[in-house]
């Protein structure tokens, strides 16, 4: 089983939503060539075939890559079928990591689905199983119903949604956090004063400051860029260690809420 320590050895992942078709092929191949190894997709993104073509186009041996996809809501009741489809579309014979995309508590199926995913792991079709958008209440129910603890929880996290209590809780449970939308989709966070100050002082870009903030908080950012130049810039950022004072100043940004992305109510299938 992949442990959270092995996830931490992947300092950054390449995000592929909302790329489709040739854009997905091109950006995945470029990201791999630049040095990304963790490639993140999802059945829900409807781009697994194109991501698989990008992986193939890179020419890198399979074992050097870390391929992660997610079980969509429609498939909570058909875990085996979903796995077969994802493997076929990605053109691989195992996944490094497979996550439940959203808990969908209104369906009440995530614990059964996770048990099926654990069977697939025992068969060697999946190296590691995890979740996304799970809160402690969902993890508690999962543990109580299956005895299983996911290796990773992929959550929305950035300096304006920095979730310190949740991160501490997951760390205490030995669950590696991956941050989705780590740049808050390239919005205001990149123009925030503390981010700009660190960028200027260190001679790096605001995007690099924010990615270094994730890295300095033991988070694995899953970042997307269609530009080879920014892909490279982002990858370089995870070797930058911020000081405690820099982390604290960036963490002091005004906090936003989850909005429509509250996993207790979001019905995304
Ligand atoms: N588990 C889930 O429920 C979930 C939900 C959403 C997303 N995700 C995953 O997380 C990944 C990343 O999230 P995201 O795509 O929403 O947002 P993101 O990575 O925070 O931001 C991507 C945006 O930022 C821009 N950007 C990238 N690097 C930059 C830099 N250094 N400086 C300035 N702008 C930069 C990109 O533009 P350019 O392309 O022009 O560079 C793009 O518009 C997704 O692709 C997906 O794999 C998971």
Automatic annotation (TrEMBL):
Site (Lowers pKa of active site Tyr): 70
Family matches, as InterPro entries: AKR, Aldo/ket_reductase_CS, NAD(P)_OxRdtase_dom_sf, NADP_OxRdtase_dom
Keyword Oxidoreductase tagged: yes
GO molecular function: oxidoreductase activity, acting on the CH-OH group of donors, NAD or NADP as acceptor
Matches recorded under Pfam families: Aldo_ket_red
Binding site for substrate: 101
Name of the protein: Aldo/keto reductase
Active site location: 45
Record's keyword terms, sorted: NADP, Oxidoreductase
Residue ranges of every copy of the NADP-dependent oxidoreductase domain listed in the record: 11-252
Protein family according to the UniProt entry: Belongs to the aldo/keto reductase family.
Keyword Oxidoreductase: yes
């Amino acid at each position: 089983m992949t442990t959270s320590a092995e996830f931490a050895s992947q300092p950054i992942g390449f995000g592929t939503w909302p790329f489709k078709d040739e854009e997905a092929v091109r950006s995945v191949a470029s990201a791999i060539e630049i040095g990304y190894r963790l490639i993140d997709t999802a059945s829900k993104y409807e781009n697994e075939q194109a991501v698989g073509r990008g992986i193939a186009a890179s020419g890198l041996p399979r074992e050097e890559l870390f391929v992660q996809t997610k079980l969509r809501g429609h498939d909570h009741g058909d875990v085996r079928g979903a796995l077969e489809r994802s493997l076929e579309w990605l053109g691989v014979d195992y996944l490094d990591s497979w996550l439940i995309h959203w808990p969908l508590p209104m369906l009440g199926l995530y614990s059964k689905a996770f048990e099926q995913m654990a069977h697939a792991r025992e068969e060697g079709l999946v190296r590691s199983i995890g979740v996304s958008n799970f809160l402690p209440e969902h993890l508690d129910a999962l543990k109580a119903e299956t005895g299983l603890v996911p290796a990773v929880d992929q959550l929305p996290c950035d300096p304006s949604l920095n979730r310190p209590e949740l991160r501490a809780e997951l760390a205490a449970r030995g669950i590696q956090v991956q941050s989705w939308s780590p740049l808050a989709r390239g919005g205001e966070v990149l123009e925030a004063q503390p981010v700009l100050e660190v960028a200027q002082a260190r001679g790096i870009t605001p995007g690099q400051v924010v990615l270094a903030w994730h890295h300095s908080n033991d988070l694995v950012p899953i970042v997307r860029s269609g530009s080879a130049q920014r892909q490279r810039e982002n990858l370089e950022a995870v070797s930058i260690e911020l000081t405690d004072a820099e982390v604290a100043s960036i963490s002091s940004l005004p906090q936003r809420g989850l909005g429509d992305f509250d996993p207790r109510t979001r019905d995304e299938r």
